[in-house]
Amino acid sequence: VATADLDLHIMGGEVWNRLVFVDGHWLPGLSSLPSLPPEVTAMSLANAMSAYPHLVANDLAQHSPIQDSGFTALNTAFLRDGALLTIPDNIEVEEPIHLIFLSSGLEQGSVSHPRTLVTLGTHAKATVIESYGGLVDAPYLTNAVSEYVLGPGAHLDTFHLQQHSARGNHIGSTQVKLANDSSFNAGAFDFGGSLSRNLLNVTLEGTRSSCNLYGLYMTNDSQHVDNQVLVDHAAPHTTSRQVYKGVLDGHSRGVFHGNITVRQEAQKTDAQQMDKNLLLSDHAEADTKPALWIYADDVKCGHGATSGKLDDTAMFYLRSRGLDKESARRMLIHAFANEVLDNVGLTPLRVHLEQVISSSLRFEGQSS
Length: 368
Hints:
Elements: E1 17-22, E2 25-26, E3 41-44, H1 45-51, H2 70-77, E4 82-87, E5 97-103, E6 110-112, E7 115-120, E8 125-134, E9 140-150, E10 155-163, E11 168-178, E12 183-190, E13 195-204, E14 210-219, E15 224-233, E16 239-248, E17 253-262, E18 270-279, E19 285-294, E20 300-308, H3 312-320, H4 325-341, H5 347-360
Parallel strand pairs: 1-5, 4-7, 5-8, 6-9, 7-9, 8-10, 9-11, 10-12, 11-13, 12-14, 13-15, 14-16, 15-17, 16-18, 17-19, 18-20
Antiparallel strand pairs: 1-2, 3-4
């Protein structure tokens, strides 16, 4: 694997910290940590398990139960390597930590099981990006599991970017535990692959903890993207927000299942959830199922879902101002996606996402 193979995935130039994995194994020659504070541990899980077992003993495989998912059990059974990030108390990592997981596809029908463990101490702060992709257009499966554990007052921004090749398949599971006064922001962006399924399970265990979850998925041809978002309000005075959007073309299918649980002891919960889908083809399908399970009586919760096509009136207005059909269509799709993109504060990542969106858009009917 050469540096040129990373061009599609590298962002932030030489400033961002980067760990690169191919087929689930760490490549130190392509990894660099130029701006990582000395107190922070960022290393291969394989090295940590053999040389520093105390760093993983308390949390590795403790938050992703194998009884609930066969894919998580499979990942745990084949756990050989992955990424370990440990941020101690009161440490802020100013530059993002970019984890790049690539599948070589050198063997037909290959599978990799990358693992990520991120722990933040009290009042620690960091930004983590997980990127997934393939080096060749061949059938393969990436079965990833990530565990995020936030201490009291910690803050973590995460971004999950899936850009697999056309015949790649992705199964991902992310488990998050939040302590008192901690906050977790997560953006999920799915653009590639034949089949993709993402499970995000956030448990707000601490009082006044909060999470902001948002996602954008764009599909063409016969792609299938499935997002399962589970938020468990287990403590009082907790807050959650969910906004997911899909742009579906061709014969593709998008699935969203958002589940908010408010336990009896979680009084004063404030939870909102929304999924919106834009169908660019008569053959595209959006299946959405927002759900609330409320066992407390002093809460403020709401959810909703919409699916529809581009507004003919808006198209007519833009065409009447001199725009051709394709330009008008692209402008409306970008406007639809901006509600999600506005959450991305990292300029290099925002530029990268806008470039991917522009290259993903095809003229109406071309993929239908």
